[in-house]
Amino acid sequence: MTGFHRLQEAVTASKRVLVRVDFNVPMQDGVVSDDTRLRRAKPTIDLLREAGAKVILLSHFGRPNGQVIANLSLNQIVPALENILGCTVAFANDCVGQIAEQAVRAMRDGDVLLLENTRFHQGETVNDPALASKMAALGDIFVHDAFSVAHRAQVSSFGLATHLPAFAGLAMEYELDHLTQALGTPTHPVLAVVGGAKVSTKMELLKNLVSKVDILCVGGGMANTFLFALGKPVGISLCERGFADTALEILDNAKRSGCEILLPKDVVAATAFAANAPHKVRLAEDVRDDEMIMDAGSDAVAALMHAIARAKTVIWNGPLGAFELPPFDRATIQAASYCAQQTTAGKLISVAGGGDTVAALNLAGIADQFTFVSTAGGAFLEWMEGKQLPGILCLSK
After folding, report:
1. Which of 15, 20, 37, 134 is catalytic?
2. Interatomic CA distance for residues 176 and 392, integer angstroms
3. Which of 1, 261, 313, 326 has the greatest count of CB atoms below 10 A from its CB?
4. Is the peptide bond before 26 cis (omega within 30 degrees of 0)?
5. pLDDT tens digits, the chain, 397 residues: what are they?
6. Active-site pick, 39, 42, 52, 198
7. 63 is catalytic
């Protein structure tokens, strides 16, 4: 990664290092049910501990909106974090003020301290300068290791960098390296697979991608809007008819940029939005008035797999159908599995991101076969849209 100070060159013994991590993890019955984000923070924490630093962890958890809410306390993740790190993790019931200050003063070199949910303070989400000053007083160095919140200009993800020397953590470096490899300086041909429900949520993404990639596959409910714009019947499918002109504009921009667009030529249609609903494969122009498009058809999957075979880089965001309802997960699983096979065979670089995308890849059991899977949602999308992220800008030299 270029353009940033390297963390390894800055950390020395006894330094108090404030590390912004993302410990906003799913819980079930008071226990962490998916520790992926905790594990991704481990390399940075290990590096700092080995250097003799005092590691002070900052994170949000849920959306308490400036209120102290007991079931949104980060204290409940301490056992899982201790298990992953293999060391004791102290906990402070606040992230600023006397409680936090006393906890930091009690630290020895190599200790780990987790501070309470940053969003218990209203000033966190509005980047309040006074809160940033108080929080910064707890440390000597700021390390940003949470790409997932890099699109937010908040105290713990941006404001601290105005008070302390700022560095990217190892997880942040790793994420940015792979995203740059996939979209900044990719190996062509580049294929982008963009699915999901609505065009309206990904307009900027699609507009940016058609000028940067060689092939763009549009799937999921988004594809219905494009099919409708082209005069195809979509029945009672999810479709944003008001964005038909936007879809046509994107298609026109793609044509001028030399970007090939893949839309499903056949679809899986059903009369009910439900798991295992009776369904039929139809050509896109043959969808009936009482039917809804639930998934891409076999010919559409074959066309996407052919595009994957031609590509050297694949960027994937969003499912191709209603993947949460079997058997309408079939197109996503088949195409993503083929992408994983090509990746493990060394034939392409594959990067995926976004909540639904990660869920779909985990459902298929192939997430670990992609080159990189980002756990970030909004930050991943904004990066793909070509936007500059505050949490990244604050680390630039």
Report:
1. 37
2. 9
3. 313
4. no
5. 444 556 766 677 789 999 999 999 989 888 998 898 999 999 999 999 999 999 999 999 999 999 999 999 999 999 999 999 999 999 999 999 999 999 999 999 999 999 999 999 999 999 999 999 999 999 999 999 999 999 999 999 999 999 999 999 999 999 888 888 887 889 999 999 999 888 888 888 999 999 999 999 999 999 999 999 999 999 999 999 999 999 999 999 999 999 999 999 999 999 999 999 999 999 999 999 999 999 999 999 999 999 999 999 999 999 999 999 999 999 999 999 999 999 999 999 999 987 788 888 888 899 999 999 987 878 888 888 888 889 888 886 4
6. 198
7. no
Domain end position, chosen among 128, 151, 173: 173
Asked if residue 365 and residue 265 are part of one domain, the reply reads yes
Domain total of the chain:
2
> What is the reported pTM?
0.84
- CATH number reported for the structural domain that contains residue 103 in this entry: 3.40.50.1260
Choose the catalytic residue: 66, 242, 355, 365: 355
Task: Examine the domain organization and report whether 196 and 147 are in the same domain.
Answer: no
What residues contact residue 320 under an 8 Å CB cut-off, 6+ apart?
193, 195, 219, 220, 295, 296, 300, 301, 304, 331, 332, 335
Choosing from 62, 235, 378, 386, the catalytic residue is: 378
Per residue, the 3-state secondary structure of 6-50, as one string, reads CHHHCCCCCCEEEEECCCCCCEECCEECCCHHHHHHHHHHHHHHH
Is 49 one of the annotated active-site residues of the chain? no
